[in-house]
Amino acid sequence: MKKLGLEMEMVVADGETGASHCVRQGYFQALARRKAARGQATQAKQAGGRVVALLGTHGESGLDNAFNHLESALGPVPGGPGGLARLQARMRDELADVIDALGEEGAVLLNVSEHPDCPLDEAFYRAARAPKPIYDYWVGQRGWSHRVGIDAKAQNGPTTSVPLHQAAQALNVVLALAPASIALFANSPLEGGRATGLKENRLSIWPRMFATSRHACDERLSRTPGQPYADLGDYFRRAYGPGTVMHTVPCGQDGDYKASARTARAHGDPSLLEFLAAPQWQGTACGSGQAVTLRPSAAHFEHMQFSPFLDARFRFRFGTLPEVPALLRALQAPQGLEALMAAHGAEGYIEGRMPGANFVDAALLQEAGPERAAHVTLSAAAIQAGLLARLDDAQALVRQWGWQRLLGLRQAAIAQALHAPEVHALAGEVLAVAAQGLDAQDRHRLDYVRWVWENRRTGADRTLECWSASRGTPAQRLRALAAQRTVLHPRLWAACGEAMELG
Q1: Dmax (CA) of the chain
Q2: Which residues of the chain are under the pLDDT cut of 70?
Q3: Domains in the chain and their CATH numbers?
Q4: In this predicted structure, what is the pLDDT of residue 418?
């Protein structure tokens, strides 16, 4: 793999009570001081008059959808020998900075992929939600129930670069084998202070969010299709073609789809491909309501790539923008988009979105041992990198199991994780292929997930045991759970296992 990255999402809680905690503006100041002490310059990014992220040389440290839900986009770092070690070092530094900055306001991170007892009502949603303009559009214009994710439903998403000519095959593999990663990293069995009956309740978000959408395509584009993608053109025609409705687009060249205040909604609810085929399109600027004329560009195609809410996505950036007619022709020709992207210096990667957030806590450190626990957060990236390095073997595994059978295992993975026999068997075969794709010096980075697989002991299982054993009021039970599931500072485990090599 040429480049590796990690989108690390984190659940914030009050350090005393375990209640969901919204970071204050002083958090970003504290974070900036720590990064400056490491010699890293940062630049604050604002939305709605508030800081929502710090941009730096090692990535972006900010919010996902709310002030109680942090996201750090780390990398990219060079792949190949030592690549995972480089990513591990960056992850460890970032986690240390975040935990230290949170400590200044009495907050901690929880080792869960969804806060176990957080309000989902409209009042909390309005108080906690990040002031990103696209959320107003999603709620007000598309009708999404965006608040179902306000309890910090958090993923640990690996990003792995792929050659353009193999991008569709790589995406197919990651999508088809998603039940294995869902199960191995299941870590959200509770919602609103109650057991949900699901080991990874986090992934109930998409059908719930899109149930109220004005456009049926929104829910459809969150589901893996019934057959593999033939090429990138097939992928983007499904996402942007007939029967779909485009999201807002920048009025200018600002490509930040969440934070930008200069976006507009095209009149008539066109698909993106319909929009691109026109010389111009009338629209309304978000926020101001001003009438605008939008002139389609390949930048709009590049901007819209977030819109399929799948378990994995193909992400890219053009080196130079192609002309729109050439782009539209390429979309219709077999392997045409791959050739066009290559001609315009595009780089692409697979963004995995199915592994739930997992970190080191005291109970895990004691139960699994420090050598295994040290790899918990990086192991999703190790699995994806290993699979894509052995793409032929991973494709053979998909063919052996069958596309439809694998799609059918997704809900079993969400509900039962590794206690579903077929899911457990699949996860074992996925780990075997991934191990072969890693350099010998990196295979130990799968030690945590091997332990999880052998013992069928996911984060969800440990959470449920703690919750069931707790007594008292809901507040007392939450306090007890949070005490056990607080994420440990890297300095508390850095002297053990592989992390010692990075000190």
Answers
A1: 65
A2: 1, 252-261, 494-503
A3: 3-245+316-502 (3.30.590.20), 248-298 (no CATH)
A4: 98
